[in-house]
Amino acid sequence: MRRRAVQLAVVAVTVALLLIGLPLSILGSAMIWDSEQGALDTRTQTLARAVERRLTQGDRVDEAMLDPWIDGRVNHAARIIVILPEGGRVETAPLGEGQVLRSTKATGAIGSGTGATVIMEVLVRDVQAQIAGMILFVGAASTVAFIVAVFVALRGSRRIAAPLIYLAASAEQLGSGQVRPNVQPSGIEEIDLVQDELVRTADRMAGRLAAERQFARDASHQLRTPLTSLSMRLEEIQYLTESQEVKDEAELCLQQVERLTGVVDDLLRTSRQAEGGTSEAISLPDIFEQQAEEWFGAFEKAGRELEFSNEAARIALASPGALAQVLATLIENSLKYGAGTTTVSTRPAASRGVFIDVADEGEGVPDEIAPDVFTQGVSGHGSSGLGLPLARDLVAADGGRLELTQRRPPVFTVFLNQLPGELDPHIVLPRAALVTVGRRRRRR
């Protein structure tokens, strides 16, 4: 955007300078030529009158009389030829040593009333030098105007591009799940109109999402009670009846009820996970600080170290509570099943994102369960196997992913989308966001 704006401004200024500068140079050259020709004619006319007066008074016309007229301090240096009535000829020195007069040189000649002819010549190159000076002045002025125009275009493009970047960040936050992007008005009417429309769209989307989630929760809760009662009645019928045919039908009905109950549970779980997908711009050092307060004591009791490093220094898009829960799960697994120092570090991703690596110096994940480590119920240490699948779902709800990037020693990597680095965090970061893990809650 900025480059195109500068290019358009440069093209416009270049065309304007060409349309003005070239005609001005041509017109100025013609005016200087005509002015010098007129000045030469005036000088010749004045000298002719002086020669005429001198001849009328009977005085002699010689080089001493012509010397004051060839001075080049005020006008161009000239060569004067006076052809006397009786055929005599008085000439001044040539213009420049070894120079040859050419027909292309500007000359002025008139016939005096006494029959004398006065010819005055100047070098054309002196007039051309004056014209070249005028053209150089126009060129210098055009260059200064071009530089000023580029400078103004750069400042103007930054003023226009910055709000567009903020607008892109607003759209990115909206697409990542934040229902109300926090971007200040730019002061440019057209961009602010788009921003206002994005805010209205976000409000409409938030209302619809809230209505859909509320409906899913209400429907799930309303269906669970009658389904439970129906299941109990079918089990009672199956227990009390003596007919095998009735028992078989009751068993089929129970299977259908259980299947429907599973659908309701999935619907409720999906609704709850969707609520965690409203990502926002967060500061990773704040999340790390909260995790450090949560886990330093446990690691110290275990005689181990927990280190945090934020080399990427990027603003990520995620749900603060969900990300804190994911990191807590990975750190807790490292504390229980890992060894040595546990390191939580960040590194930049090439695709406008940030990686968060959680690693320790333990034996790692066994090869037989590594491909299914995120499958519910899979665990190599006798646990429930629910922590990692839930953590993966929470990261996926924010548009990221959780992977086992190294088996031995173990490295779990969380990928999150990021805000563009050129954005001002004070403008796009939400105010007073809460980070919650367990009973701890801190305002940043």
How would you concisely characterize the structure shown here?
It contains nine helices and 13 strands.
Write the layout of secondary structure elements.
Elements: H1 2-56, H2 63-66, E1 78-83, E2 89-91, E3 107-111, E4 117-122, H3 124-176, H4 189-240, H5 244-275, E5 280-283, H6 284-301, E6 306-310, E7 315-318, H7 320-337, E8 342-349, E9 353-359, H8 387-397, E10 401-406, E11 411-417, H9 425-428, E12 434-437, E13 440-443
Parallel strand pairs: 6-8
Antiparallel strand pairs: 1-2, 1-4, 3-4, 5-7, 8-9, 9-11, 10-11, 12-13
Helix pairs in contact: 1-3, 3-4, 4-5, 6-7, 7-8
Under CATH, the topology of the largest domain can be stated as Beta-Lactamase
Helix tally equals 9
How many beta-strand segments? 13
Q: Biggest sheet: strands side by side, in what order?
A: 6-8-9-11-10
Shape from CA axes? rod-shaped
Task: Tell me which CATH architecture of the largest domain applies here.
Answer: 2-Layer Sandwich
Number of domains: 3
The SSE order reads: HHEEEEHHHEHEEHEEHEEHEE
What fraction of the residues are assigned to beta strands by DSSP?
15-25%
* Relative helix content: 55-70%
- Biggest sheet layout: 5 strands, mixed
Structural class: alpha+beta
CATH class of the largest domain: Alpha Beta
Rounded mean pLDDT score = 75
Any low-confidence stretches, pLDDT <50, length ≥5? 98-112, 424-444
Please give the radius of gyration in angstroms: 46 Å
